[in-house]
Every structure is written in C-alpha cells, then in structure tokens.
Design brief:
The protein has about 180 residues and is mainly β. The chain is built from no helices and twelve strands. The protein folds into two domains: about 150 residues, no CATH class; about 30 residues, no CATH class. Strand 1 and strand 2 form a beta hairpin. It is globular, with a radius of gyration of 18 Å.
C-alpha cells in the first residue's frame, strides 16, 4: 500500500455513494476505531449516525488458549488507511510485525449504490506456533450501532431481496445480513 511509503498518512476517508455517506478511520486517534466510524443514510436519515461510538471494527483475535493478547489486539498497533482508485473503496492494512499474533490483515470496504457496503477481510498468520496447542484463531468483529426509534429493519439477501422484518433465515436456509435502506 502506498500510504506506508513516504506519503503523508490518511487518517479518515469519507465516501458518498447512492444513499450512503460513510466515514472510514484508521486507529491513530482512538485505539477502538479502525474501520467504519460513521454511517448515514442520506435519503432516509441524513442526521442519524447509525454507528456510535466505534462502528464496525476488528475487535479480537482469540487463540483458543489463555493469553492477554486475546482481548482487543486489533485495536492496538497501527492500521494504515488508503483510499483506492475509483473513489468508492478503502483498505486498512496491518503488517504482521505490528501484531502480537504475527497476523497480517487487510480489511477492504467498497461503498456501492444504492446502499451497500461490501467488506472483505484477509488475515495471514505468519507464526502458527503462537496458536498452539489447539492450532486455531477466532477473528471477532464488533458492530456498535446506535439505538433507533423503530426497531424494524430490512434484512437483505442478494438473491431473494428484502423483508420488512427480521427473518430467521432466507428461503434457501442461509442467514440474512442487514443493511440500512
């Protein structure tokens, strides 16, 4: 990522696409925030930040054995933020040497019309011995959302569309995600 190679670091990026205004943040100001910090639906709730205080962020890497690094490790150590060409995507990058678990991680976000945020997480462990004796890791993301007056929301499944209330599963048996329409 070019952000690490002599350029001034970027700490926040705001992307507006379709009905969404999204602010992404690195963790240089607050150890709790690296990821989506603010989320607004500019059509239906332009003054309501759906996320507070920390938004969607990488919160824990859990080793399966007692270790102080099981708690909030992704919140500590730098994540660099870069806006990607095209103006609708950002990436947060953490080098393995900045993680006590020696995991390199790349968190990519794309804001797409009318109101979608596509998210991809890639984590690459550099030292499997850190996860012994069980040999696995749990990657935990937190999603801190503000309270709303009306708790009804729309769950979305790309193949089958929207529902007015939260379903237990889609017609195909898959769990449904949520979106801010």
């Amino acid at each position: 990522m070019s952000v690490c190679r002599g350029e001034d670091p970027v700490h926040t990026v705001r992307i507006e696409r379709g009905e969404l205004s999204v602010e992404f943040r690195d963790n240089s100001y607050s150890p709790q925030v690296s990821g989506i910090d603010m989320l607004f639906n500019t059509t239906h709730a332009a003054d309501f930040d759906a996320y507070d205080p920390a938004g969607l962020n990488f919160a824990h890497i859990i080793s399966g054995h007692p270790n102080p690094n099981n708690k909030f490790t992704p919140w500590h150590g730098p994540y660099t933020l870069e806006e990607l060409p095209g103006g609708n995507s950002v990436v947060l990058v953490r080098r393995a040497e900045d993680s006590p678990w020696k995991i390199a991680s790349t968190l990519s976000y794309s804001v797409n019309e009318p109101y979608y945020i596509d998210f991809e997480c890639r984590c690459t462990p550099q030292d499997a011995l850190l996860f012994r004796p069980r040999g696995y890791a749990v990657l935990f993301f937190a999603n801190y959302m503000n309270d709303v007056e009306d708790v009804s929301h729309r769950a979305m499944h790309r193949k089958t569309g929207f529902w007015p209330t939260r379903p237990k599963a889609t017609p195909t048996g898959e769990a449904a995600g949520t979106t801010v329409p």
